[in-house]
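Comment thread on ticket #2218

A.B. wrote:
> Attaching the input chain for the structure job we discussed in standup.
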Amino acid sequence: MKLILQENNISILKINHREGIFEELTKWAREHNVRAATFFFLGAADEVELWWYNTPEKKYYKKTFKEQWEITSGIGNIARKGGEVLIHMHGTFSDKEYRVYGGHINKMVVSGALELRMEVFQGSIEKAYDEETGLNLMQ
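C.D. wrote:
> Ran it. Output below, let me know if you need it in another format.
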């Protein structure tokens, strides 16, 4: 990952070919002590694992796609859970037939590049497991 531009609390980052977005953002958040941030991104990926959450069952269903994807939009946040970095992101992806898929991103490997805008906030967003929903929610 490469820092392209930084002004105040906003960073423009480039995630390179074959890099995993979770690994790169987690490393960035640890190195810069990020405890609260939002981000959005676009680019291309060639491996994506999407999850869909069934709230009544408290269960994620997952599907892995290993093909070329345009990232039409991605959005997420960085928080902490028990002091550890917790990244939450969703995205939409289009294939070569212009079909669009989307959901909670659990894994994504960049092909080509990914351009990301991150806004870091002072303070901390803390998340904890919620028994009622089965999710890690902001506190």
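A.B. wrote:
> Thanks. Noting for the ticket: DSSP finds one helix and nine strands in the chain.
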